[in-house]
Write a structure and sequence with these properties.
- This protein has five helices and no strands.
- By secondary structure, it is mainly α.
- The protein has one domain.
- The chain is globular, with a radius of gyration of 16 Å.
Length: 122
């Protein structure tokens, strides 16, 4: 049964990624803002789910697995991030490459921190 929950979460997460990333990316040609935003949003939500589970006991194991492995596993875009970063490097877009890599790492770490702080202050 858990495999079905993961699959359902993956389906929903993939659709959300497609819609939200496309909406954010609209009009941006060079910089992968949609991917950066998805990684930030996904990291923040994952932090909330995991810290709410760990510190507050809010989610059952099944719900946590559905959200973290299923939905957020397909929603976040690390492989896309890596490919797009490499393409920026290939195109000699060194500044955009640096902004994307540093921004993605810094913002996703910030998102996890914010998720923890919010959870601990509930």
């Amino acid at each position: 049964m858990i495999v079905l929950w993961i699959g359902l979460g993956g389906f929903v997460g993939a659709l959300l990624r497609y819609w939200i990333s496309g909406w954010i990316q609209a009009g941006m040609v060079t910089f992968p803002l949609g991917t950066l935003a998805i990684n930030f949003i996904g990291s923040f939500i994952l932090a909330l789910v995991m810290f709410l589970s760990e510190f507050k006991g809010y989610f059952t194991e099944e719900t946590r697995i559905f959200l973290s492995i299923g939905l957020l596993g397909s929603f976040t875009t690390m492989s896309t991030f890596s490919y797009e970063s490499f393409k920026l490097l290939e195109q000699q877009e060194h500044l955009l490459f640096s902004v994307n890599v540093i921004g993605s790492v810094a913002l996703t770490l910030l998102a996890v921190y914010l998720g923890k702080i919010i959870t601990l202050n509930l």
